[in-house]
Amino acid sequence: MHPAPSVILFTALSGLGFGMLASLGLGNPDVTGLSAFIFFALAFALTIGGLLASVFHLGNPKNAIKAFSQWRSSWLSREGILSVLALSIMGIYAIGAIFLGVRWHVLGATGAILSVATVFTTSMIYTQLKSIPRWNHWNTPVLFLSLTIAGGALMTGQVRCAIAALIIAGVIQIVTWYMGDRRFAARASTIGTATGLGDIGQVRMFEPPHTGTNYLLSEMVYVVGRKHGQKLRVIALGLMVVLPVILLCLSQDHFTGAIAVISHLIGVFVSRWLFFAQAEHVVGLYYGQR
Amino acid sequence: MTSLGTESKVQLGLVIDLDTCVGCHACVIACKGWNTENYGTALSDMDAYGEKPSGTFLNRVHSYEVQPDTGAAQTVHFPKSCLHCTDAPCVTVCPTGASYKRAEDGIVLVNEDACMGCGLCAWACPYGARELDKAAGVMKKCTLCVDRIYNENLPEEDREPACVRTCPAGARHFGDLADEDSAVSKLVSERGGMDLMPELGTRPVNKYLPPRPKDTGEEIDILAPLLAPVATEASGFLGWLDRTLEKI
Ligand code: SF4
Ligand code: SF4
Ligand code: SF4
């Protein structure tokens, strides 16, 4: 799948932002006044920035408002509704914490649950697609949620929690890669089943339907950079998990914390790039590719 | 509404004969010609006369080579457009309600006035049957020529999809696949019509008729008996010449 920068930014930033909101909603750290303002401003900037980036991905954004209508069947619609709900409730909670110096616990807990639920719906947009076997598995939501929790703990300075959550997220990431590499074969879709000609013999593409490229090839048969996959995985894991964990173990001042956060964020970007670039859509079979 | 309601009693679709298709691409052109000036926005082309032309098409013809275990390989031309799936994954993922499957005849359509161009339905389709138009930013797909098949302004013989109407080889058939007695359903049962990627559970309405098995018996040459030499042993002067030359 084409790793569009808008979608990578959207999923990575909003995932981190909602993780922060969830942590803040549960009172970690228990802040009010100016320091609460700084935490909430950062969290809202990440989530809203991410959501705005996703709008750039649309071909016809003027109809975006209609995306709230199909929550009965569509995960994308559910995500839209939950994100607005989570942000509104956390907004009210933030006003209380910043200006009135009070923490409304029930409201905060509700906002935290909604924030995590929003990330779950984001992950389900990908998980539901049978046409992309790598994503079509429970480990997609588990990975997204574990990264959100780890990122949220890291961003809100919950050091011990962050170290544990980062290690867990790293393990889940490795398991996801390992299992994901085997999923396309397990789905058993081949050029033979795609064309129905497999019963006759070996099928091979003789001529593509068009000489140039098209939407299908650029969007769904993106193969550029796959050969660097293993190296990029090592880089992603190193920046996302290993380096932040080492830094947090060594020292806990603000500067080290900031480096750990930046490293984690870049690592998540690389991991998300791979999430898209390594995902093979079955339509590639019609073009003799994966 | 992008939930799939109860299954419609009529399931209009295409039956494509892979034995007959000659890969002429006439259906591709007829489809683009009709649909660029009818239902919804035009099917745009990008850089049409430049170095890297590309464009939106609702029907495309691939060509494959199939090599059986024994015998010669065969070439199969393979037209592909929306299969109007019964369990259409492209419909349920749509957040805006733009994608829907019609209750009355099972045609899967996009309401372009509601589409926000997110592309998720194209991701959900295993068959590459949906293309986001670069110029209009909305999703395009085969409409089964919904604006022809019921169109009383057209002569009766033209009330079928443009691709079916134009196919010079008669490789494309249109009809109700939910009706067991329809011509298309009979064709499907006679010729072993098949689903594409049945393992994905989309239950396509469109069916493909596999190429008929190639002859495997001995080659029959109808002219051979007429050309067989009449005399096997030469006699007379030629016989003498033959024997004499043999001895030298
Ligand atoms: S072929 Fe693709 S676009 Fe057409 S109904 Fe099936 S899933 Fe949807
Ligand atoms: S591109 Fe349009 S039709 Fe397709 S899922 Fe998005 S809004 Fe629906
Ligand atoms: S017009 Fe008919 S013969 Fe020509 S490519 Fe299309 S289906 Fe095949």
Keywords:
heterodimer, A: 290 residues, mainly alpha, B: 248 residues, alpha+beta, 3-stranded mixed beta sheet, two-stranded antiparallel sheet, 8 helices, 11 strands, elongated, binds iron/sulfur cluster, DmsC (chain A), transmembrane helix (chain A)
Describe this structure in words.
The complex is a heterodimer of chains A (290) and B (248). Chain A is mostly helical. Chain A folds into two domains: 1-128, no CATH class; 160-290, no CATH class. Chain A is built from ten helices and one strand, in the order αααααααβααα. Chain A has helices at 5-25, 33-55, 75-100, 105-127, 139-155, 159-187, 191-195, 215-220, 229-250, 254-277; one strand at residues 202-207. In chain A, helix 3 (75-100) packs antiparallel against helix 4 (105-127). The radius of gyration of chain A is 21 Å and the shape is globular. Chain A starts with a helix and ends in a 13-residue tail after the last helix. By secondary structure, chain B is α+β, with helices and mostly antiparallel strands. Chain B has one domain: Alpha-Beta Plaits (2-Layer Sandwich), CATH 3.30.70.20. Chain B is built from eight helices and eleven strands. Chain B has helices spanning 26-36, 89-92, 120-124, 146-149, 162-166, 183-191, 224-227, 236-247; strands spanning 12-17, 45-46, 54-55, 59-67, 74-81, 99-101, 108-110, 130-132, 139-141, 172-176, 207-209. A three-stranded mixed beta sheet of chain B has the order 10-1-11. In chain B, strand 6 (99-101) and strand 7 (108-110) form a beta hairpin. Chain B is elongated, with a radius of gyration of 26 Å. In chain B, 45% of the residues are buried. The mean pLDDT of chain B is 91. Chains A and B meet through helix 3, helix 7, strand 1 and helix 8 of A and strand 3, strand 4, strand 5 and helix 3 of B. Strand 1 of chain A pairs antiparallel with strand 4 of chain B.
